[in-house]
Design brief:
Layout (H helix, E strand, L loop, with lengths): L3 E6 L1 H4 L6 H17 L4 E6 L2 H14 L5 H22 L23 E4 L8 H11 L4 E6 L4 E2 L11 E2 L1 E2 L1 H8 L13 H10 L2 E6 L3 H8 L7 E3 L1
Parallel strand pairs: 1-2, 1-4, 2-3, 4-8, 7-9
Antiparallel strand pairs: 5-6, 8-9
Length: 230
């Protein structure tokens, strides 16, 4: 694994119902050790929206049943900016660059060990931003941390026969999640990001974000629990 790794940090683990300060404290402690061990290591954190996104999107839908999907998306995007600003402040001694809110901008610099990014524009989730940044900085792997430990053959909440997968090809994964995006869509990795990652020959590892020891095992190239897509 190259010394630049992109971590898509799901909003469901930053702020599942409110900001999870306990998780963020433990996450910071372990990432600090990882970064301090080798100063050539670099991490890109791409932050999702979590509870703030859902709360505001639901409020809009409650008031306006005919609300535009782009307005829902923008509320989710602003929530990622809030979470991203929080994570950037937590890792302040490793971050010298501004919060990235357009992964295609010409003037993105990555001058320290950590770069923090958040949502860009309607049409996809922050998973897609993570793939854009991975392509830009030649990171071959995206670690996708969410509230699920593995990708299943179907939604296990609806299908008791759904089985967890250790590996799945991009073709098979895309066949499951589709190719279109809807605001608030809940898939292990978003359909737009999946298509881009497939085109780029990129590997995505989906894992349970709160299992920080497991995340460290992924980063260190050790045995881990999760699903490798690609």
């Amino acid at each position: 694994m190259s010394n630049i790794t992109v971590i898509s940090l799901g909003g469901s683990i930053i702020a599942p119902d409110k900001v999870d300060s306990s998780f963020l404290s433990s996450f910071y402690t372990e990432m600090k050790k990882y970064l301090d061990e080798d100063r050539t290591r670099k991490l890109i954190f791409v932050c999702g929206g979590g509870a703030p996104a859902r709360i505001y999107q639901n409020a809009l839908r409650d008031v306006r049943k005919d609300c535009r999907s782009s307005d829902q998306d923008w509320l989710g995007i602003r929530a990622t900016h809030l979470n991203g600003s929080l994570v950037r402040a937590i890792f302040s001694e490793y971050v010298t660059d501004e919060l990235v809110t357009d992964p295609t901008a010409d003037d993105i610099s990555f001058s320290s060990q950590v770069l923090v990014a958040a949502g860009w524009k309607p049409g996809f989730s922050t998973d897609t931003d993570a793939v854009y940044l991975a392509r830009r900085f030649n990171a071959r792997t995206v670690i996708n941390l969410s509230n699920i430990a593995k990708v299943y053959t179907d939604d296990p909440r609806k299908n008791p026969d759904a089985e967890p997968l250790d590996e799945i090809s991009w073709d098979d994964f895309i066949a499951m999640v589709g190719t279109t995006w809807e605001p608030g869509k809940n898939t292990p990795f978003d359909p737009i990001a999946s298509g881009m990652a497939k085109e780029s020959g990129m590997k995505v590892i989906c894992a349970e974000g709160r299992n920080i020891a497991n995340t460290m095992a992924i980063l260190r190239g050790m045995e881990y629990t999760g699903t490798t897509i690609g």
